[in-house]
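Researcher: I've got a protein sequence and the SMILES for thiamine diphosphate. Could you write out the 3D structure of the bound complex as structure tokens? I'd like something to compare against our soaking experiments later this week.
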Amino acid sequence: MTAVVQSIATAAEAEPELTDGFHLVIDALKLNGLNTIYGVPGIPITDFGRMAQAEGIRVLSFRHEQAAGYAASIAGYLTKKPGVCLTVSAPGFLNGLTALAHATTNCFPMILISGSSEREIVDLQQGDYEEMDQLAIAKPLCKAAFRVLHAADIGIAVARAIRAAVSGRPGGVYLDLPAKLFGQVIDAAAGQKSLVKVIDAAPAQIPGPDSVKRALDVLKSAKKPLIILGKGAAYAQADDAIKALVETSGIPFLPMSMAKGLLPDTHPQCAGAARSTVLKDSDVVLLIGARLNWLLSHGKGKSWGDAPKKFIQIDIEPKEMDSNVEIVAPVVGDISSCVAALLDGIGKGWTKPSDDWTGTVTKKRDDNIAKMAPRLMNNNSPMDYHGALGVLRTIIAERPDAMLVNEGANTLDLARGIIDMYKPRKRIDVGTWGIMGIGMGYCIAAAIETGKPVLAVEGDSAFGFSGMEVETICRYNLPVCIVVFNNDGIYRGTDVNPTGGEDVAPTVFVKGARYDKMMEAFGGVGVNATSPDELKRAVNEAMDSGKPTLINAVIDPAAGSESGRIGNLNPQSLLKKKK
Ligand SMILES: Cc1ncc(C[n+]2csc(CCOP(=O)(O)OP(=O)(O)O)c2C)c(N)n1
Ligand SMILES: [Mg+2]
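Model: Sure. Here is the predicted complex with thiamine diphosphate in place.
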């Protein structure tokens, strides 16, 4: 008896301790501080999710991969660490891919980890379960894409993915993990040794002294300077340095949508409400983490006026320079280092812009704000956008720490203009693409990553793209208050079918829909609000209680305009005019 026991004990001692692909991926993520996964389970990653949860990673399970992906993308923006999204093969991967492309376009660090099917069968196209050459498909839509075939390579692959996502201009990275990899077994000690902790994942990139001097010379020559802050500036978390640069220079600043709050919208130098004036009349424009894409009319044309304009641009990506117009002073480097260098140079004998220029901007801004003020105080029922948003504007002023999520057309454009932001990175929205569907994923990640209450201002169409995630919000009991601006449709609910047929017009939804009932179905609070007073009460209650809440805000179906503020981008049919 004793002999038998002894022989078993000896065998166990001799047996090397093992680890496998499942555990190595988990260990590699944890080693690098990636402690949250947003995803949807299924073959081949179900057990991986379970084991990750067992090992202390927060695994948030969504109803659709796209929402999980958007959550991961904005987690990356908010934390400067790659947000991780986990999906199954082919269809799950494709559902997550839109978010990966969105992350890349918006310069958010994100890693999409997808399980994939048997390589041998996929490559011979023999029809495997969820067969797809995912690596090839992901490649053009992200910064980098890697596939891991050997468990011993997991450590290095995760390290590369992290570095690729956050260094330089951040973006999306794809990591392809074939089913077989998870079960691959290797010696535990060798596995442990193979893990890599990424050192200095996003190294500072110091701008050349010449480029800084050139930029300062151009800035000094300006009579009517302007600073434009993009979401890159917000991402950089160089808040104090940017504030110091703006205030020391005395130059009016214009925040792009997600840069609102980097300095308060109520700051005396904020030109947000004088946008058209500063774009037209400025002579030197300093872009900080803002690209001259469509959101800034490519830096030319009518909205920029006829006055000659010089651009200084701070960006980490050298290829960004001269993308649309000539950049006379490119400053290439990370925003923190570039702003610090400018600030250093500006300290010596800087003359603030003339009262003539700053006074003109301030007057225009104050006039525009005064013009809007009475509209924000109406108590109409059904509500118009201004009445409803006037209420939400006050609520955010009283709760500046709350996160604000915003999507829609009119609901987006008007909320952006009306709701002032007071702190950095509190406003998250449709970003570079004007994408619908980010809403609930952003709400979930914002609540998880910041621990702050979240207010989502959602068009009824926009909400529909990710509406099922209200179950996820209820399941994790997140402090999210969703206000659906229900105007019965896309842009407005009043279009008619010109044929007189039974189908409603393509932009029109069910009239009088009650989105609040969706939240009630999962145990959250639902409220139907028909006036600004009712809306105010319901939102305040939700923000105080922290209970998942959805408020169906009844908006006049005729209140909106085509495509919100960007109707000019719609192609026009010449034939219409012939009739
Ligand atoms: C993924 C995606 N699909 C479609 C669109 C086109 N689109 C732009 S705004 C919008 C919805 C606008 O309606 P709503 O959210 O109800 O806002 P409203 O103007 O009615 O306030 C749509 C479908 C888009 N931007 N993104
Ligand atoms: Mg609508």
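Model: The longest strand covers residues 110-116. The chain has 24 helices and 19 strands.
Researcher: Great, I'll pass this along to the crystallography team.
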